[in-house]
Amino acid sequence: MHRLSQNRVPISRAVVSEYLGALAARVLLAEANLTPKPGLVDQRGQGCHTDMTLALMERSACTLEPFFTEMALAALQLPLSAMLRWELGSIGRNAERAMLRSTAGVNTHKGAIWVIGLLVAAAAQLPAGDAETIAERAGQIACIPDIAQPVPLSHGEMVRLRFAKSGARGEAMSGFPHVTGVGLPQLRRSRAEGHTEIISHLNALIAIMSSLDDTCVLYRGGVEGLAVMHAGAQAVLTAGGVGTPTGDATLRALDRKMLANSLSPGGCADLLAATMLLDEIERRSRYVTADNEEK
Description:
This protein is mainly α. Helix content is 71%, strand content 0%. It has helices spanning 13-33, 54-77, 82-102, 110-125, 131-142, 155-163, 167-173, 177-192, 197-209, 215-238, 245-260, 266-294. The longest helix has 29 residues, at 266-294.
């Protein structure tokens, strides 16, 4: 049971699920607005996309909030089981349909529904868990087969099969290693070095881009495009990262390459949002724990 007040009064399931749903939507809004992101929609423009705008991304994120709330509530009501996996899958498909209605058919957040939905459900079941523990539970949920999963393959699944890459599904089933082992450590390092939250989040994105086999990039640019992203992102980190003169110049060069090759690292963006979500949950949990101990 969640206990966050000074007097340790249990908080209702509805309040907890609404909190997690709102937090998930805020993270997606923050990720969309983060600027500059190589190849991606941000406050500068559409990136590599001709059908997406920042306003559309924001509308989509707000549309998804009640569905993330439903996922959290389902996880509070059901144990780790096939029934929970079925329920989350059903809510996720409803979320996809609502997203497409709100965007006139544009796929803005399909990958994020999967990634963030799993983490929201895991966080609901593990209120006192740290980021790594929550990611591990999300992986356990992802490993349970969804018997109602539709037969048609997404672009990500087709790329996964063509290039023998694990994709978003494999990342989730492994407990989100690019979140807990790449994104979060880089975010923490940048923050400890005194960088702003914007710079720290951008460095986390670049770190993920330096090693993730992003199926969105593979779909658009094949293995050559993926190599462009990996090498360019690693160059930014080697130059000192975002927030340094050389790192910023290298980031701009990477952005030009991504745009020229129409490479949009959507999978990296989803994992950045996951990184931001787990970071927020963990930091708020530590604050509440410390506050209760002092009192």
